[in-house]
Design goal:
single chain, alpha+beta, seven-stranded antiparallel sheet, six-stranded antiparallel sheet, 13 strands
């Protein structure tokens, strides 16, 4: 066991700095006002059955809303550019930019090299929850997704309704891709309604029963044309376990809305990231 240095306390006492100050982060050019929201027209509605996933399409400039129905339920969300599956939600950079849990005003960013907002959160009925006494909060971008590989590693067996498998099957059905190809497009999720944190003593990832109740919703503005997939996690409210058929599970609903005429005047889709991608090769300065 290495000895602590004599100045260990002083080194620990150094104050942290925020990795990515957000003052220069582009904010959404559009956030719906209540009057516009009340004039929205339902364009499509998708019910995600319990322990399954379903895909849905949202056009740039539409609103989509994930709603808890019937009972407390966590959802695992994947997003792709509807025209190019290579551009997909980057939960790690979203976490680095906005924090471990997201809410109103935060944006869901795509990966490199596009790194642009795919969607902006426009309403969160669980905004009131904040950070609880355990350090838990709602809608995390830390938990990756429940998957059969980790389950097999820790417990053995072959459970087929983890969110990873649900999302894989849903994407394969939607696109016609073979299962193995579809699986490669499934990525780390936004854990909608899930209540999570890290334990203070061991730093371990924890979950606790979600505070979500039927009627609660998380609403997004689509910044680009999106293909989404949502899994109703086999963990249900994720209060106990998440890779078995033991938990009470409920469906989720995804509603897509058209905004009223004129609401998007002056708004345009975010362009892809401006970095020149030379990476310093060829003697570039
Ligand atoms: Zn799950």
């Amino acid at each position: 066991m290495p000895q602590s240095p004599q100045d260990a306390a002083a080194r620990r006492a150094v104050a942290p700095v925020i990795c990515y100050p957000t003052e220069t982060l582009p904010r959404s050019a559009f956030l719906p006002e209540d009057a516009q929201r009340s004039q929205m027209q339902l364009a499509s509605s998708t019910t995600v059955p319990a322990r399954q996933a379903a895909c849905f399409h949202v056009r740039a400039g539409q609103i989509f809303r994930i709603t808890s129905i019937e009972g407390p339920q966590v959802g695992d969300l994947n997003l792709w550019n509807a025209h190019d599956l290579r551009e997909r939600f980057y939960s790690g950079k979203t976490r680095a930019l906005h924090g471990s849990h997201v809410s109103t005003g935060d944006r869901l960013w795509s990966g490199f090299p596009t790194l642009r907002p795919m969607a902006t959160i426009t309403r969160d009925t669980l905004d009131w929850y904040g950070i609880d006494a355990f350090g838990g909060a709602v809608h995390d971008v830390i938990g990756t997704r429940c998957d059969p590989y980790t389950h097999n590693l820790l417990s053995g067996g072959h459970y087929h309704h983890c969110c990873h498998s649900n999302l894989t099957r849903a994407l394969a059905t939607e696109t016609g891709l073979p299962l193995a190809e579809a699986e490669a497009h499934v990525h780390d999720v936004l854990n909608v309604f899930m209540c999570t944190g890290f334990t203070r003593d061991t730093g371990q990832y924890f979950m606790k029963a979600s505070p979500v109740r039927p009627g609660d919703h998380l609403e997004f503005f689509a910044e680009i044309d999106l293909l989404g997939a949502l899994s109703a996690c086999p963990g249900g409210d994720c209060g106990a376990e998440h890779s078995s058929d033991a938990a009470a599970c409920h469906p989720l609903r995804v509603d897509v809305f058209n905004l009223p005429e004129g609401a998007l005047d002056g708004w345009s889709e975010p362009v892809v990231n401006a970095y020149d991608r030379s990476h310093g090769a060829g003697g570039a300065p």
